[in-house]
Amino acid sequence: MSQIQLHKIDLNLLSTFEALIEEGSVAAAADRLHLTASAVSHALGRMRTQFDDPLFVRVGGKMQPTPRALLLADEIAPILRNLRRALEPAETFDPATTNRVFRIALHSSPAFMAQATAEISRLAPGAMLDWVRIKPTNQNDLIDGLIDLLHVGGPAHLADGIQAVDLPPVTFFSFVRRGHPAVETWSADTAAKYRYLQVAVEDTGGTPIEKEHRLLDRPRTLGGKVHDFPLTGPVLLESDLITTQPSFAMMETWKRYDLQVLEPVAAPKDFPMRFAWSARYATDPANIWLRDTVIAAYRKHEADITAQMHEAVLTLEP
User: Where in the numbering of this chain does the HTH lysR-type domain appear (predicted)?
Assistant: First the structure.
């Protein structure tokens, strides 16, 4: 394969490639770019020649990216995102008129996400809010500008080039279905008779809850795992499992499934939480506005839901 001549690359081709990756068809990409389908097909032909790869092949009636195209997508996305930022006029951000896409990585918290989305939609009706799953690469994505804001829990080390603000420590509660037999005499001995449901949000080994159980010598046996917080509700409703989770992630699930709130047998105390962002965009007006808006909404949500759960909690018997 011949070496790519960067001076011969047409930036419009990269925009076309991005649209094809995200839209999945020539017609949809053409609509997005306000071009004809013929123009997009011609651009795709030029890219295939330039990269010596078909890039997209038709499978089952749909355009599917090749492995080379997927690799290019990962590399090109931050380049185009940063280029757009660089070309934006300085100091012109206006929430009321912006059409920016804001990306926030956060553990699933439906109630907070709904509240934050509603607030941002009210203040910035043309903006789009993209909630991104928590994953091991989030910090790199933050540095590269692929996400704007990252919710970080625990004493995790933040990489160079990342700034953060401390949030109020999260409070953990345990949850069971209404009528669970453990509620009659809720104690450490009672809890030890039942198995636990864990939310495996990422594969990082032991959870902070497991560590507390070991420190207090209160054994915990797992009876199941789910991959997201909202899934705990229906599982608890049909079982005698117990789950211990952070308050901010459980508001909707607690109320929707009418779960009983319990004082945990073992849970982290003063568990640190932060919102983090790239130092490169620390002074970007849009990023500042997003941080201020989301962090204020989060602080209020966390305080409100924790207060409500404290009022409803069943405390441990001696």
Answer: 9-66
Residue 12 scores a pLDDT above 80: no
> Per-residue pLDDT tens for 278-316?
998 899 999 999 999 999 999 999 999 999 999 999 999
- What ranges make up the beta strands (E) of 17-147? 56-59, 62-65, 101-105, 128-132
**Where do the domains of the chain lie, and which CATH numbers do they carry?**
6-87 (1.10.10.10), 100-318 (3.40.190.290)
- The 10s digit of each residue's pLDDT in 74-97 is 888 877 777 777 676 666 789 999
Pair of tokens at residue 215: 């420190």
Backbone angles phi, psi at 197, to 5 degrees: -105, 125
Sequence-separated (6 or more) residues with CB below 8 Å from residue 291: 149, 165, 275, 277
Nearby residues of 170 by Cβ (< 8 Å), 6 or more positions away = 153, 246, 247, 248, 271, 273, 302
Residue 131: CA count within 13 A, CB half-sphere: 14
Of the candidates 202, 219, 200, the one whose C-alpha atom is nearest the C-alpha of residue 265 is 219
Phi first, then psi: what are they for 177, rounded to 5°? Answer: -70, 155
Provide the whole-model pTM: 0.69
Tokens representing 244? 């211990």
Backbone phi and psi for residue 248, each to the nearest 5 degrees, phi listed first: -60, -25
